[in-house]
Amino acid sequence: MILNVSVPASWKELTQEQMRYALFLLASGHYEPEQIKSLCLIRWGGLHPKEHVTGGYEVEHEGSIFVIRPEQLAAFLPVMDFLTDIPDEPVRLEHIQGCRALFPADLQGLPFESWLAVENLYQGYIRTRRTDLVQSMAAVLYEKGKKPLRLTPAEAYGVFLWVAAVKRLFAQRFPSFFVSAPVDEQQQDTFTMLRKAMNTQIRALTKGDITKEKEILSLDVWRALTELDAQAEEYNELKIQYADAGKS
What we know:
Elements: H1 16-28, H2 33-44, E1 48-53, E2 56-61, E3 64-68, H3 70-76, E4 95-96, E5 99-100, H4 112-128, H5 131-141, H6 153-173, H7 190-206, H8 213-217, H9 221-247
Antiparallel strand pairs: 1-2, 2-3, 4-5
Helix pairs in contact: 1-2, 1-6, 4-5, 4-7, 4-9
């Protein structure tokens, strides 16, 4: 008798219930990566552990009993490697604390002003690990409830992964604008640096015309980043042209 197990192979394939379970394990701090993968494989594969037997573990699957050897279980684990990486495509919990997400997973429709706030909070969290910054991100991305959001560790981890995956997507879609620049963090206060970066982006879009700032901040983030990426590409092309002219 052959044991056939079907499990999700990416974050995108997870149901909301499965995502919550994965986030719970990841945020708990009690499990090593291989343990997380094993637990998810067993749960999502419909395997019901019975007992430890000579040579392996006895499990029930769809009414039949199988014995799985440790090396067999280990051979399945690479399928679950996605659990310990940033999602390839943005995913998110549809509801946290009873409050629904205000925007699609790719954040289309999010005002540029709100994205700047989320970006600053995200970068601040990366540098300080202050959990209140994740709470503030959630307050932008989810509807407001009757009480302030008080995220569980799993929900907070979910918000972090959502924004991290969006940033990965933006870097792929707008490569000219999202170019990593070395920053001496020893010499610059984090939030001062982030404020300067935000102001630079706004100035680039308004072209110095402060009367356009309100209009720019209300743009869909995708529209704003498309324009910034185009400007960055034009600037890069001009640098190449001037460099070539200088050599001639």
